[in-house]
Amino acid sequence: MSDILVLILRRLRAPLVTLISVYAISVFGLALMPGVDPQGQPWRMGLFDAFYVMSYTATTIGFGEIPYPFSYAQRLWMTLSIYLTVIGWAYALGSIFALTRNTAFRQAIERHRFEARVRRMTDPFFVICGYGQSGRRLVAALDEIGFGTVVLEPDAQRARAHLVLDTRQATALLMADARSPEVLLAAGVAKPECAGLVALAAGDEVNQAIVIGAKVLAPSLPVLARVGSPGARDTLESFGETMIVNTYETFAFNFRMALTQPDSLRLEDCLSGVPGAALPPRIEAPRGHWIVAGYGRFGHGIAAALETAGQSWKAIDIDPAHCGEQGIVGSALAEEALRRAGIEQACGIVAGTDVDANNLAIITNARRLKRRLFTVIRQNAAGNRSLIEAARADLEFVQAALMTNECVQLLTTPLLNRFLLKARQQPNAWAVGVLGRLRDALGDTVPHTWALLCDPALLGARYALVEQTEPPLTLAHLLADPDDRLVRLPAVPLLLLSKGRDTLLPEENTPLRAGDRILFAGAEGIEGLQRRTLNDDGAVHYLRTGREPVRTWLGRLLEQRRQRAPGEAVAGPR
User: What angle do CA 295, 300, 303 make, to 5 degrees?
Assistant: First the structure.
């Protein structure tokens, strides 16, 4: 607000001085002009009366001549004053209108409104730095989950898309550079409601500056950054605890899993997909010779995955600097280049250039030379979705979608990422078993995932874990309906974190301890029932014993009598 006042005083200083001077000259001049009362005696107007007359005259209200009819001298002065005040007001109003069109003033007003919106946010929110394709998808995804968002984007064209966004949760937008500490503070990174910050700017250097600034202002704030080079990753990893996502490396890893562990990849897609949607298909890439069209950062990641999986490959790129000794210089659009790369013996082709139209043409030409090919295509621009769909590829790389899934997974359900990292170390058959358990519980739909904390501060958890520890509270109790203990809830425990030890797919009879965290996958609404159990000591008592808790003093007295040993029974009346 201080910036707005400074701009107003600076821009309107001259108009205000002019207007005050016009009024002062007009009032004092009118007070000095000689007049005549009804008796013909000389009379002059007082300063207050002169100010009153000038006020209603200059504002075009015009009440009349008071307290007596004006003399010719007074009327002459009034005529001069009218023109002076009209000029003064025209100058002042013109300056005010010019101020409203001033870029700095508008930015100050927007900044003030933005800070007011952020101050009014009382629910958890995330700060999104960068509103490109990934930023727009991430804001929409977080809004669906139930988180508010604060968007920082310096480019006006990109920010304009947020103005027409219809969200259910609170959101705020500021067109500013997120590298500035003042901008980050205005965005609320130091507020306790801020759940995390995501750096999605176009360049690694910008993202590094944003992350470092956020960590200095809020050291405990969860921060996630998108990087594109190994150097940027090393810099951020050396600075502190920062979640780092490189979409090229992530997709290359998923591609390697499609070659070696297709069911493990399907399990990851299932747990990180849209809840309620149909289960993702099983994608198994064939083993053999591969062609990589486009040997930039994306192509290098794919080639590394092929080498790790023990597959042969050949790259094609128009830039000799990219190809080196392992690639073919040329265009994958040409039949000659595809034949040199071994299209006749190839089992698959990766179209990974920077141009979506070229990727579609590469897939089409390759299929013309060899019909049975496993195809992988890269999408660069969101507006070219129709081109990518026309390719009918077996596997698609959509950077914005992949980035959104990674961000949501890392920020909202960190236990899920922990589980997936452990699951990657398991054999493919293990993933088949997990998928089978999920299908038995939920059918062919993507499950919801959530994490529960056995917090002794909750009434039910305190009763079971601190006050009445026998019989022990187990996972089976959390998997039973608190209204009917014989009904099993459609949910699967995936991970139990107890005293720093991870247990994959824990048994349902596993006893729980205070501070344990459990990752579940299940149907919508099950999380609410489980949280109700941990918040209600009566529900815990019913689930453990099968009896409703006694809540009246007479019932408690009878319960105590039943629990006494036979030798200590109270004798009845004689």
Answer: 105
